[in-house]
Amino acid sequence: MNGQLEALQQEALAALTAAQSLTETEAWYHEYLGRKGRLTAILRSLGQLSKEERPLVGKRANEIKEALEQALKQRQESVAAEEIQRTLAAEAVDVTLPGRRPILGKLHPTNQAMREMVEILKQMGFQVFDSPEVETDDYNFGLLNFPPDHPAREMQDTFFTTRPNVILRTHTSPGQLHAMRKYAPEPIRVILPGKCYRNEDVTARSEMMFYQIEGLAIGHRITFSDLKGTLLNFANQMYGEGRKIRFRKSYFPFTEPSVEVDVDCILCGGAGCRLCKQTGWLEILGAGMVHPVVLKNGGYDPAVFSGFAFGMGIERQAMLKRGVDDIRLFYSNDVRFLARV
């Protein structure tokens, strides 16, 4: 029996040394020291020995059991330490590997276009003038020569607030009055970028909230030629040298004469394509000479002063320059679109 115990001890120690994980040491325990283990089976068979052999063999069996339990404890501690080392090694940072380029945000395409337009106009002597987004009916319509029965004054076209005659501005043109009344009778040259709101159905070409930039120049002997030169210079800087522009007669209550301005298509150079709808031209803004009534409302004498004004949608410029055909993409928060433009 002692020989059997010694052989079992050597076999158990060898098997324990070969165990490489805590799971394997648990399996080893059940095989040798568990309730149905091989050593436990020997201990249960001691009753078959003679009275003289039983204490000697029992003592040796208990010594081997204690030795194996101690060996198991040491092996489990060793295996646990090895597993920690392997985990740390797998998670270690190799400082010799090339770094991962971080994903950085960037300006929204509307902000990009706005900043580019503002910089171009600032180089021509315009200064930025802030005006409120919440306006009175007088500033948004009346002082800009809109007749009382003009459809823009209807709730179907304008967002009204709960306060009488207080609205969300439908264009940046009310800022003209604020600028004129602040600086009159001094000559001015200002631009007014900001949000506008209109009660419109959202489509591929129109939004209920959008950005505009207004331009206003008032001084002595300012003519339509000054307006034309300013807009031609803007188009060449915004869309590239060699651009051509054309003026089409139009109507705005606050300018006279009034025009719509087109630039030759930046994609086809005027030959005709999908972007310009085969016309060769892209509409970019509305403009005109400041109406004498508006000059007077702003504090300027129309007999002494003249001026021009223009207004353009910022998203519109971004769409034309970047070939975007749906204005809704600007505010859909689609990361794929924002990353592309």
Helix content: 40-55%
Assign the CATH architecture of the largest domain: 2-Layer Sandwich
Whole-number average pLDDT? 88
Which class of secondary structure composition applies to the elements? Answer: alpha+beta
Number of strand segments: 9
| Adjacency order of strands in the biggest sheet | 1-4-5-9-8-7-6
Which oligomeric state applies?
single chain
Main β sheet profile: 7 strands, mixed
Count of alpha/pi helices: 11
Q: What fold name stands as the CATH topology of the largest domain? A: BirA Bifunctional Protein, domain 2
Q: Could you tell me the radius of gyration in angstroms? A: 42 Å
CATH level 1 class label of the largest domain: Alpha Beta
Overall geometry: rod-shaped
- List low-confidence stretches: none
Q: Which percent band covers the strand fraction?
A: 15-25%
State the separation between the terminal residues, measured CA to CA.
85 Å
Order of helices and strands: HHHHHEEHEHEEHEEEHEHH
Instruction: Tell me the name of the CATH homologous superfamily of the largest domain.
Output: Bira Bifunctional Protein, Domain 2
> How many separate domains make up the residues?
2
